[in-house]
Design brief:
Elements lengths: L32 E5 L2 E3 L4 E7 L8 E3 L9 E6 L8 E8 L3 E3 L11 E2 L5 E3 L11 E2 L24 E5 L5 E6 L5
Parallel strand pairs: 2-6, 7-9, 8-10
Antiparallel strand pairs: 1-3, 3-4, 5-6, 11-12
Length: about 180
């Protein structure tokens, strides 16, 4: 609250140090974001990206507009607070597949968000015990792999995936550390 001269001390947790232990410290008025939402955008389609994190919801959403010919696979998006000068950063995946955002409510099978097979799905757990359900139509003989992407893009989520029959019987289940 008071202006003046201050000292910032930086050390490693155990006071061990080494010439291999390096760091970079950023100082600014940037928001502490951990991930972007959605976590992926489709080339050639204008998208709005918001943020999550300690004060990520306060960051101004940004436009992610890439042409269909763009060669980027990843895009760093800058997160700023309203009137802020510095940026925090998050990364979104860039691809040519459709990106579907969950539509709440979708906690029970009758409200599941419809998705086409082959699209990428983006969702968020907005409250304790939140469950997101998606319904898709598969044909006999089709083979698809479902794989969760969370921590690699900064999300603290640990997914548990299940594929259910229409009657609720479980066909398969897996944590996000392996394909389903």
């Amino acid at each position: 609250k008071e202006g003046g001269e201050y000292i910032l001390e930086v050390r490693d947790l155990r006071y061990q140090g080494s010439d291999q232990a390096i760091y970079r410290l950023r100082i600014g008025d940037f928001p502490c974001v951990t991930a972007a939402y959605p976590m992926g955008v489709k080339k050639g389609i204008g998208s709005s990206v918001s943020f999550v994190g300690i004060n990520g919801a306060d960051a101004v959403p940004v436009a992610a507009n890439l042409t269909a010919e763009d060669r980027a696979n990843w895009l760093a998006v800058a997160a700023k607070l309203p009137g802020g000068q510095s940026s925090g950063f998050a990364t979104v995946s860039v691809g040519s597949r459709d990106e579907v955002l969950e539509a709440e409510p979708n906690d029970n099978p009758k409200e599941a968000t419809r998705v086409p097979l082959g699209a990428n799905i983006n969702g968020r757990f907005q409250r304790p015990a939140d469950v997101d359900r998606f319904v898709f139509t598969a044909k006999a003989g089709q083979h698809f792999v479902f794989s969760g992407v969370t921590r690699g893009q900064g999300s603290p989520s640990d997914l548990y995936l299940r594929i259910l029959k229409r009657d609720g019987a479980e066909l398969s289940a897996a944590e996000d550390n392996g394909p389903l």
